[in-house]
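User: two proteins, same treatment. go.

Assistant:
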Amino acid sequence: MFRSSGRLEGFTIRNGSDSGVHAYVWSSPTIAKCIIEDNNGDRGAGLKVTFVSFPSVHETIIRNNRAEHYGGGVYGWYAGPNIYDSVITDNEAGIYGGGSASAYCRGYMALFRTFVTNNSAPYGGGLSLFGGYGTCFSNAYAINSIISGNSSEYGGGIYVGDGGSLKLNLSTVVDNTADYGGGIYSDGNINRSYNNIVYFNSTLPVIKNMDVWNFTLDHSIIEGGLDRPGIIDADPLFVDLEGGDYHLSPGSPAIDSGIAYWHLPDHDIEGTPRPLDAGYDMGAYEFTNCKETPTVEITSVSPEAIWPPN
């Protein structure tokens, strides 16, 4: 438990009965290269962040945690973490946010270059946002991230409830399952969201509130289409969908089809610079031919064949 700034690095935290790690009351610790696993709790079984605390999480695995109500992996209330280069996987929640939940007034969650996979909850298998009362909102950012293989009743990948506000950029939402909104289910706000891929989920995204003042999910590949600028409804041509390789193949409609925007990052989920060519690529990966490995065939190793070189 943290009540001030500090650093937790290289530890495995498991078998906690009320969260594995809890940051609260104006604390902003750094958590790096840790494994947070097999913990339980009512809210935020893996990592719970409350009361104006903003920890920074780096290169950490948050897995196999279970919350009775909110945030199997991660939970924010009046606070929240910035999570970088991490994996949130195989977590479960009884109501909201199997992977993570940003909840009630001023709940906050930011994911950068992070994988959210194989989590489950009734509302938002991967990521869940829900507000509180009055004009309070919970906010989440997912940038250069992959949200895949999660399951739910509403919003297999992402659930945005009333009072929730999501910004989704350069991310891939794929292979999630839900009764309603396999990729995304939203009753709340989605704004300033560009260059994403939402495809190959069990059911189409369900976006209910499309007020032009609080809805921007543009210049993206969306299965089933969407009446927004720059939307493409076409197979993104992943390298290996069944194998979970969501790099783009040559000829993908996602290549150079995104737009530039002032807050977009200059590298992808692997650190590849973006944009590389004519424009941003949609999804978490920037396409580069350098990922293709050439085939080398050795036909002879005799001295006469290799010396002198020609």
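Protein 2:
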Amino acid sequence: MSRTSTIGARRPAKVPIEKYIETIVADVFETFAMPSEEWRSLWKSPLVPMAITTVDHRELRCTQVAIDAAHELTELVWKDRAEVRQSISREAFKKISFNAIGEAIVASPSNVPPGTADGPVDDEFFSAVSRDYLDWVDRLAGKKLETTSRHIPCHLFQFESEVPAFNVGPVMFRPRAAWISTFVTEPAVSELVRKVEQRIVTMEELSRADLSDITASTARSILNFLGGYGWIATVEIEDHEMVQSHRKASIIVGLAIDVIGLTFDSENANRLTQAGRKYIFGEVRMATNAHGKLVQGMSSNLPGIGGRPEALRAKMAAEQPFFDQAGSLLEAYLEARKTGAAVHLIERWVNALYWFGEARREASDFMAVVDYGCAADVLSGAGGKIGPLKEFADAALNPKGSPHPEPQVISDAANRVYVEGRNKLAHGEVSGLFEDLENTRKIGDALMAAIFLEVTPELAKVLQDRPHYQKLSVDHAYQGFTTLLKQRL
């Protein structure tokens, strides 16, 4: 696949970077003539030189004046470039920017007009150094971009479910064995992994292998990565710096898992998780009573959904059309997020789905209710107003062809979750952290799951059949979409 960088296609910066470049250059040149001991006395840490480095690690001595200006310049360019923020982590960009400053300063003598090397420089000099800096930013940022298939281990089912690989848009879910056969292709490594999987060789025996044994080392890394997970999600992230690509992949996989969870009840959906998710499935507990006696206990919540293999296979096959519809929205979101924000309706659907997933995973009812309320607000485009939220919920759940409309039930549920729940909890009108809000939580989950199941296919149709919605304002798009929901038969 081609690696076409979006970094180089930059527009003129909206910020006057020349003034920062002038400050940095002046400070570097002045510090160059400073005695070493005097310069070292200015360091904040004796272990960290006060310097701006080039790509080849050359240090350009400076003071805190240049460091501060370089940080401000980096932040301004970071904010000005949406495509950079999407594809490169903030920490990686800081290093890129500082290296670009260093390279531009090293090359700065070439920007001095002939015959004026010892005289003052004018604004054009700093403009030229600024252009060099931006060119170096583009060059260095472009080198950071790679296209990778990211793999995230998951808990989907509790045992050998015999569910075949399936996808949710850009995310492909494979059973452990299928992933190994697809991606562990080096014969010697594959054979060693297979032996451990089949318990012919133990992990303890593998760990005792010579560290210089590349085959054993690679097999160990793969098996440690797989851990106790039975499924692995794979998603391709195009043209991203490695840290940022992993961050995005983890979020997209989490959203795809939340889509799967929509097709199961809340209790089962809570058993779906991915590596790195902060969710406790089991813990050993210990306490000391008033007499000093140790009291032990434990709890467990087996990850993954259980059930008869044939029933799970049938269910997952039946749900694939919904996974495809939701997947098309995730696909559009991931594509748009290479350089900026997605179309408003898709952006809100994705953000609401994230709130919904977080609500299901929350340990406290208090935060779950707040999360469900936020999901309802974001998905409906209500803007904090209960009226539009109720109208949207009613349009989703009571379409024109509904045989048994229940507008009051939906209205009451929206009030309970949003007005009496989210608003009062978030604004501190009621205390909620140790309160029993189980019923409100259940109402929130049922309400939002039902809305997502109805709205998602319709939004996928809008994405495919009504591209003009992308050009409408948020308010007009929601008005049109709500009308479409109401008119369904």
